[in-house]
Amino acid sequence: MKIGAVIAEYNPFHNGHQYQLETFRRQSDLDYIIVCMSGNFTQRGEPAWMPKHLRARMALLGGADLVIELPVYFATGSASIFAEGGIAHLDALGCVDELCFGCETDRPLGEHMKLLHSAADLFVSEPDEFKQLLSLGLKQGLSFPAARSRALEKLLDTCNILNQPNNILALEYLTVLKKTGSGIRPFAIKRLGQGYHSTEDSYTFASATALRQKMTLSGLSGDIPGISSESLHIIQENYGICLPAQLSDFSSIFAALFMKNMEHLTDYTDINEDIANLMKKSFDRYTNLPDFLLSVKNKAFTYSRLCRCAAHLMTDQQRLLLDHSRKEGCAFYARILGFRKEAAPLLNRIKQSSKIPMIGKMSSCFDLLEGIGLEMMQADLLASDIYRTALQIKFGHPLKNDFRQPIVII
User: What pTM, to 2 d.p., does this model score?
Assistant: First the structure.
């Protein structure tokens, strides 16, 4: 049995994602594909455009065999933490052979991957010259991603490869695989169509950004290229009931929690003293969350990092718990969001090989988990409740909590 895996957000699932799964399955001759998917908050810190159980259904219809949830502590982390958490969970299953990810490049893929491997080797070994260049960039006021990118450019002919989100994650995946000595092999696929942040929507392979923008603004009127009829049907059935979710929908929730925890902001992941002081200084003019974060943004702190800070505060992500979790290996459970009926042999294989418990029925988590694992699960449950409450307020429809939401079975 040969098993592949993808770490994803599917926000929402589109033709490019389906192409990746189909190409991965065919070229690697896979029996099954596992997707480790973000829950209701994304790596950029923003709420997912649509709920996780709907995105899991789309993924299963589009070629995945099993979808597990990447815990919120990792799903909303920096690119390195996102990659570290995702790979740790796949490694803990004890059966994954290959990890597939996309790359953006005009070079031949083999040449591009050679460059990424060289960059990953630098991240792992951290030679003195790299550390000095990184430190210099930070002292000059650059954000950590910008300082690291400039250091790479000076040591390698990277040609700004870290300007593309998929390349950033590809590099982080390679770095984690090398650091941990994982037996999972990397498998890269060249991204087709528009770039990650492109807003052009008239393509077969439109970006998730373009699709979200078009569907949010149009209310699904007109043609929606770049997404399958099955996925579009799921969106249409739920539009105005539990989607779309936007960052502004969380403005009141964030404000209430910010005021309650204003004196303890640095207890939360990613919020240092400088960010805490900037947030406090700007809060008197608070009207909504997106504008507030833009008012705090500067050369050192990107909008994405500030979004993550907001998500960490809303979902009570404690810095000490994340640090403790990473020291203990990151993975403590695998929560099943959905699977295909034909994947029964895969589930049996995981039961035999997994080092962590599989959580199907949510009520079982209190019997199966303890310590860090239970605290991580409680953060997932809080994140789902925060997300669900914001959407109930927005649309006026009651939604199922994680204990009442059944596993998606296709």
Answer: 0.95
